[in-house]
Write a structure and sequence with these properties.
Layout (H helix, E strand, L loop, with lengths): L4 H12 L1 H8 L11 E4 L7 E4 L2 E2 L1 H14 L3 E7 L4 E6 H16 L8 E5 L4 H13 L2 E4 L6 H11 L3 E5 L1 E4 L2 E4 H11 L6 E5 L13 E3 H6 L9 E2 L3 E7 L7 E6 L1 H13 L8 E4 L6 H13 L3 E5 L11 H9 L3 E4 L1 H10 L16 E4 L6 H11 L3 E3 L11 E2 L16 E2 L5 E4 L13 E6 L14 H9 L5 E10 L5 E6 L3 E4 L2 E4 H9 L4 E11 L3 E10 L7 H15 L8 E4 L13 H8 L14 H12 L7
Parallel strand pairs: 4-17, 6-7, 6-8, 8-11, 11-12, 16-17, 16-18, 18-19, 19-20, 30-31
Antiparallel strand pairs: 1-2, 3-13, 4-5, 9-10, 14-15, 21-22, 23-24, 24-25, 25-26, 27-28, 29-30
Bound molecules: propionyl Coenzyme A.
């Protein structure tokens, strides 16, 4: 058999007989009621997996392992260099604490189907909160700590939670981020009123509690009775996770229970090659989908040990932090974003710090969240001497669209490619008319034939029509990924760019349109544009162009300072919006379209052509001059 044959046979089967294929994989999960139909296509293009089946995701993540010999195995290892704390929880301990927390949540009137917002830093209680909601059949929505109050308020209004679970603060290197004032402000801003908040107090910045609304976490848990697992439908939502839209209104991606559990169990074994009982580390944040799937649910459903890391790749305390964690906890694999490795490479280019640690148990490094740039992958390959697997997926997809399935059959790594489609993914490259591009290697829109595999994307919360318009309407019968790329003669996929206004900043997806909305709301600003410019460390960073209203004659730096602060206040530090310049006008086509693509090429020093439809070519000279002054190159 040739290399890749095992994968190809499996992938082919997943497409030709998806129901039989996924029914087989579903044996890894404990169900309280079997399905009536593996794939329910009766409401296509809204497909449902394991229709009629029932299960509880928390039971699959905790209780069943306690009952079947893993009670004393560590389930979660918390490693926090920012607080100098480490703590390990066995499966029994985690199950017991989650059951009590579920009791505290239930006592606030939360029942099956109710929404609960979780706004927490990277502490074990954040994972417990997710699992406790799952235990009750409640639907959680985790909001990343780097978002501002306004973003939290939008999410509160969209999913109308009965309860918010939070902590008093998060800890960033060199500063304590007080979460509670941000939550209080968000509750003020939101139209939906939150009856109850449970607040985990951290000594670094204890929060004041609002009488009649806020409860102390430890007191609420101490007073609660443990709760058992409530069976839910496989098709019921487990969580809602918001991702950037093209406007300030984020999109609430819904994830189901049954298909997700099946897909995660499969991926832990066959994509990540991790065995139950082994130690796995996903260095992301529970606020991102990667954190949902591979810090919380995936490793626990699989009976592995998950590491929860409250720290950074560099500066906590140095660029050897990742090697220290892998070595100390004997992790067999790490999943992180390329930006983390770029940060380590910058600080310790020769990898001197690695020599202090024993990484003999370490087998594979997985990268995702942004395109794995070949120089970083080559550097990691040379340094670590293990396979470096770039893989591609999205908040919407819940798990990998493409990867190298090292647990099934490792395939050769091709630099710049995220390897081959995961089971159930029938990926095509489409031209502008939506027709598959026959020529291999030609770039087009990456789209997947419906139905998507289990664990992916049933719809947007309370927004079926928006789901259809945003993802299904452009290419009927396909899911539009929003990414463009190509597939080569071996079936390897390369993702090159976005087709919309989304940029990727340090593995965080941001909408330039959303940042423009904030800039445009400043009193001095008549018009604006935001582009993503290439950044050695973060991949891309947002860069703003402001056209001021006539008559504004304040110092320019003041306006720029204020818009930068405005983005931080409205979207959050995660937007990493630090630079804007003031220009006399924006370059536009005669029909008024801002030439963002050309501006980006100029900023990145890429070759560009004068667009034939440009209104006034001099506008691009002005942009080039402004960019050069700001330290960005401009080749012509
Ligand atoms: C595959 C599907 C997906 O794509 S899911 C998304 C996957 N993406 C990821 O996992 C993200 C990967 N990136 C990272 O983990 C971080 O960017 C790493 C590499 C660790 C670097 O972190 P850091 O140095 O903080 O830079 P950054 O650009 O992330 O942060 C920008 C500013 O935001 C702040 N921030 C960050 N996290 C928080 C937080 N939880 N609470 C409050 N603030 C936060 C940072 O401090 C930073 O602020 P400042 O601008 O320095 O003042």
């Amino acid at each position: 058999m040739a290399v890749g044959d095992t994968y190809r046979a499996l992938h082919q089967r997943s497409l030709s007989d998806p129901e039989a294929f996924w029914a087989e994989q579903a044996k890894a999960i404990d169900w309280t009621r079997p399905w009536d139909k593996v794939l329910d296509a009766s409401k296509a293009p809204f497909y449902r997996w394991f229709a009629g089946a029932e299960l509880n995701t928390c039971y699959n993540a905790l209780d069943r392992h306690v009952q079947r010999g893993r009670a004393e195995q560590p389930a979660l290892i918390y490693d926090s260099p920012v607080t100098n704390r480490k703590k390990s929880f066995t499966y029994r301990e985690l199950r017991d604490q989650v059951a009590k927390l579920a009791g505290a949540i239930a006592e606030q009137g939360v029942t099956k189907g109710d929404r609960v917002i979780i706004y927490m830093p990277m502490i074990p209680e954040a994972v417990m909160a997710m699992l406790a909601c799952a235990r009750l059949g409640a639907v959680h929505s985790v909001v990343f700590g780097g978002f501002a109050a306004n973003e939290l308020a939008t999410r509160i209004d969209d999913c109308a939670p009965k309860l918010v679970l939070t902590a008093s603060c998060g800890i960033e290197p060199g500063r304590v981020v007080k979460y509670k004032p941000l939550l209080d402000q968000a509750i003020e801003l939101a139209t939906h009123k939150i009856p109850r908040c449970i607040v985990f107090q951290r000594w670094q910045a204890p929060a004041s509690l609002v009488k009649g609304r806020d409860l102390d976490w430890n007191e609420a848990v101490a007073a609660a009775q443990p709760r058992g697992c409530m069976p839910v439908k496989a098709t019921d939502p487990l969580y809602i996770l918001y991702t950037s839209g093209t406007t300030g209104q984020p999109k609430g991606v819904v994830r189901d229970n049954g298909g997700y559990a099946v897909a995660l169990a499969w991926s832990m074994q066959y994509l990540y090659g991790v065995n139950p009982g082994e130690i796995w580390w996903c260095a992301s944040d529970v606020g991102w989908v990667v954190g949902h799937s591979y810090i919380a649910y995936g490793p626990l459903i699989h009976g592995a040990t998950t590491i929860l890391y409250e720290g950074k790749p560099v500066g906590t305390p140095d660029a050897g932090a990742f090697w220290r964690v892998i070595s100390e906890h004997k992790a067999v694999a790490l999943f992180t974003a390329p930006t983390a490795f770029r940060a380590i490479k910058k600080e310790d280019p020769d990898g001197k710090l690695l020599k202090q640690y024993d990484l003999s148990k370490f087998r594979t490094l997985f990268l995702a969240g942004e395109r794995g740039d070949p120089p970083t992958i080559e550097w990691a390959q040379k340094l670590l001497g293990v396979p470096i697997v770039d893989h591609w997926w999205q908040t919407e997809t819940g798990w990998a669209i493409c990867g190298n399935f090292v647990g099934l059959e490792p395939m050769p790594v091709k630099l710049g490619s995220c390897s081959v489609p995961a089971p159930g993914w029938n990926l095509q490259v489409l031209d502008e008319q939506g027709k598959p591009i026959a020529k291999q290697g030609e770039v087009g829109a990456l789209a997947a034939k419906l139905p998507l595999p289990p664990g992916t994307f049933p719809t947007l919360w309370n927004a079926d029509e928006r789901f259809r318009q945003a993802y299904l309407a452009d290419y009927p019968g396909y899911y539009k990924t929003g990414d463009a790329g190509f597939i080569d003669q071996d079936g390897y996929v390369s993702v090159m760019t976005r087709v919309d206004d989304v940029i990727n900043v340090a593995g965080h997806r941001l909408s330039t349109g959303q940042i423009e909305e904030v800039l445009g709301s400043h009193n001095d600003v008549a018009e604006c544009a935001v582009i993503g410019v290439a950044d050695e460390l973060k991949g891309q960073v947002p860069f703003g162009f402001l056209v001021l209203k006539a008559g504004v004659d304040r110092p320019r730096e003041e306006t720029v300072r204020e818009v930068v602060q405005l983005v931080r206040d409205r979207i959050g530090p995660v937007a990493f919006f630090k630079t804007a310049i003031i220009v006399p006008r924006l370059p536009k086509t005669r029909s008024g379209k801002i030439l963002r693509g050309t501006m980006q090429k100029i900023a990145d020093g890429e070759p560009w052509k004068m667009p034939a439809t440009i209104e006034d070519p001099a506008a691009l000279d002005e942009i080039t001059g402004g960019l050069k002054t700001a330290g960005y190159a401009g080749k012509g």
